[in-house]
Structure formats: C-alpha cells, structure tokens
TrEMBL record, chain A:
It is a multi-pass membrane protein. Belongs to the binding-protein-dependent transport system permease family. LivHM subfamily. Keywords: Amino-acid transport, Cell inner membrane, Cell membrane, Membrane, Transmembrane, Transmembrane helix, Transport. It comes from the Bacteria. This is Branched-chain amino acid ABC transporter permease LivH. The keyword Nuclease does not apply. The keyword Cell inner membrane applies. One of its GO terms (molecular function) is L-phenylalanine transmembrane transporter activity.
UniProtKB/TrEMBL annotation, chain B:
Residues 20-252 form the ABC transporter domain. It comes from Microvirga makkahensis. SUPFAM superfamilies: P-loop containing nucleoside triphosphate hydrolases. It comes from the Bacteria. This is ATP-binding cassette domain-containing protein.
Amino acid sequence: MEIFVQQLINGLTLGSIYGLIAIGYTMVFGIIGMVNFAHGDVFMLSAFIALIFFLILTTWLGISSVALALFIVLIIAMVLTSLWGWAIERVAYRPLRGSFRLAPLISAIGVSIFLSNFVQVAQGARNKPTPPMIRDVIVLFQGESGYNVAISYKQIIIMIVTAVLLSIFWYIVQKTSLGRAQRACEQDRKMAALLGINVDRTISLTFVIGAALAAVAGTMYLLYYGVVSFADGFVPGVKAFTAAVLGGIGSLPGAVLGGLIIGLIETFWSAYFSIEYKDVAAFSILAIVLIFMPSGILGRPEVEKV
Amino acid sequence: MTAGASIQQTALNAGREPLLSVRGVKTYYGNIIALKGVDMDVHEGEIVTLIGANGAGKSTLMMTIFGNPRAREGTITYAGRDITKMPTHEIAQLSIAQSPEGRRIFPRMTVFENLQMGASINGFAHFDQDLERVCTLFPRLKERLQQRGGTLSGGEQQMLAIARALMSRPKLLLLDEPSLGLAPLIVKQIFSIIKELNEKDGMTVFLVEQNAYHALKLAHRGYVMVTGNITMSGTGKELLEDPQVRAAYLEGGHH
C-alpha cells in the first residue's frame, strides 16, 4: 500500500513532465500533420537553458532564494526556447510546406541531430549536474514496515506548475481569439485564410506555444533529476510522443492524459517488476492500446460528417 | 427584379470603376487549365451571378479571387487595388467574405465559435449586433449556438456558412452555391435574404449557382461559364430569356 501511494506520487510527477512535452507533439501534428521529431531535443535544450540561467542567477548574481531563481529561470527558459521553436519552424519546416509529406519529417530528424550535437559541442558530452536545489520532503504517513510515504517539495512544485500552466494554456486555446485561430487552422487551414487568419503566423504560434511548454517540462525535469545531458532529449521525447499517440494525437487533453498514463506505467513497472524493462512496459501498453483503439484514448476517429 | 431596374443598374455602371474586376485570368491545377482567361466585373451594389454546369470552373474562379489557387495569368483588382498576388488572409481583410464550396464549417467548433471566426477580421466591433442579426435571419442557428458545427445538418451548415460570411460585414459577399442541398422552401428564404442584404445594406453580392432560374431572377447581371470560359453575359432577365441559356440550364429545371 505504501509503495503504491509512493509510486502514484512519483508517477504523476513524471507523467506531468511527459504531458507537457506531449502537447507540443500533438499541437504541431494537429495543425500541419507532421511529427516534429526535434521536439524532444527542444525539451533537452530548454533544460540546458534553465541550467545555465540557474547557475548565473545563483552564483553570479547571488540570488539566494531558490524559489525566486526558479521562477525567473522558468520565464527565461520559456522565452528563449520559444524563440528556438519559432526559428526551427521558420528555417527547417516552413520552406518545405507544400512539399511531399516526408520532407518536413526528414528535416525534423535533421534538426533533432543538429540540436543534440550542438549542445554536445557547446556544453560537453558529460552529464551536467545542478547544485542541489530543493531537498525537503513532507512525510505523508509512516508505514508499518518503516517505509515512509513522502512527497518532496520538488514534486509539489512540479505538479502545481504543470497544473497552473496547463490551465493557462487551456484558457488560451479555448477562450482567446488566438486559440480560436489556432483551432480553426487545425480544422481547415484554407477556410481560416478565407476568414482573414494569417495561417503562417498561426503555425509559428503553435511552435512557440509547444516550445514554451517543453521549456516548462525541461525546467521541471532539471529540478527533478538535478542533472541533464545532451542525449536527454531522445528518450523523454519518444516517451512524450508515445503519450501523445496513446492519448489520441491531435487531442490536447489526450496528450496530458497519455503523459500521465505513461508516467504511471513506467514508475509502477519499475517498482513492482523490473526497472530495466520499464520502457518496454510503456511501449507495450502503447501497442496494445493502439490495437484496440487505433485513434488513441481521446482521439477522434478519422471519419467526419460532411 | 424588374427589367427596368436591371437596365437602370446596367446604365448606372457605365463609366464607373467596378468594385471587383477580373481580367484575362487563367488558373491551373498542376498542368490542367481550369480557367482559360476569364473577364468579369462586379460593380458596387450589384448582385452578379455566375451560372454554369458542374466542373465549369465557377468555384475555381471564386477561390482564385482569394488567391488560392493563384491566377497564373491575368489580373484581379478590388476597389482599385491589384489583389492578384496578395496573400489570401489579406484579401479577406479588404472586406470580402466568402461562403465557399462545400461550406467548410469548422466541425469541432460550436456554431457560436464559427460565427466568432467570421467576425475576427473586424475585431468584434459590432459582434453582438451582428450575432443578433444573423440569428434573426437564421433562427435555426440561434437554437444551435452551442452545438458543434460538424453535428449540424447540411442545410444548417449552409446557413452557418452564409451567416459566418456575414459576420464581418463584408462589402463584397461571394456565395458559392448557397442553395446546394437545401429544401426548396429554404432556398427561397436564402435568396430573399440575399436580396434584402443587397437592397437594405447595399451589400454587393457575387453568386455562383447551378440553380440558374432563381439566381438569374435575383441577379442584376449574370455570366455563363462553360469549361473555363465566360461564354455569355447580360442582365439577369436577358439571360433568363436567352434560348441557349434556357436550353442548357433552365429546361426541365426549377420552374
């Protein structure tokens, strides 16, 4: 029981990070029908941006409040990563729009390789640790066997930040004219243009939002694990993509749900079975779900009334 | 529309710069030519209709005006501006609205959101007023404001497409087969709405129709399109009475 609750907490934390990344995949897929394979590396890049600015703020500028530093770092990481997201779309994808379907996909793989190598060259190949940031934990209850169920401050921060940003994001997409334009382009780009929507700008905006949420995930990842390397874009990226597919690619709530499910499967599998096979477990569940629900859990079937 | 009024209208247009003018426009789909050099004018305050058979290129002309697909040759001017190479969304911002072929309702947005999309160009300046107006024109939509566009029936979607186009208070309204798939009673209703918009609000209307009889009766002027060429033009009445038009588009038709 204690282990179960503990793993639930751990799984939800990990799952929120996956969910944040998954939104970037699902939004881009929704609007231009392309899997942005570079998105995982954008996430990795944002973790490095967060790391660099965290060090600048704490050691050079001498900000002693970790919470304040984290807040500033989060904002900076979101802004800079958004710029990267915007630039990547501009340079690598937009010129290929209207080209054959595989072209932007290949370009995305190229961007992915570029980003991880760029970070490797610029930052070195070794793991980069952060100084320990927040260590406190709250012991929720003590088990009979002496196993304590605890939730760390880090986990609380991650869950709260994720929830707050997802709410803001949801509000933007559902209630603002920006979000409406975004959804319109996703459903019918040609019609959106006929109504005066600048489709190119809206697609750029989608990349910017996706990258900003990836930056939140990157900062949270750094906070959680305290270490990041240039290769860290790949596995979380693939997991988040899996989450997007599991939840139903194109569906925003699906991405979050898929992220949580993948996070939970992974942690529970590690706790009860074997940690070596946690990725196998996550991907197997994906395969099984897709056999029975090809459009994912919350995805819509392809057929639409005309 | 009486004959006198049509002639008056045509006389009025003489020497005036047209609101929309299409000159020698050729449009291709890949290597296949769809418009073979179209000339056409729409003057301010007019209802102009374009009739023709399936596949004649009517809808292509509508979309070419909006630059999607783009005219490979020729020029399109609107209110004195050359819009041939302008991006689609900028053309829309010049206060031209279209209810396109296939209606193109946003299926996963509510009726209300679809209407909001229509109003986004003019920055929601008169949103409540315009919403009320289209709800009065199409009471059916009012009942369904919170329903998703994709769940509407074909006729309701057609109404929504027209209502959405009206939300931006366009100077020029392009309607692509507004009568398609609608019950005769609703067709009649829609045509009377078009007439009302034209007469009361002075809205200029360019109407593509297969329902030639109704369209020609309503329009001040008309054009006939056959496989990418304009083959005939005249006042609505002239075309209605033309033996060729009658033989090709009206016999056994809607009267």
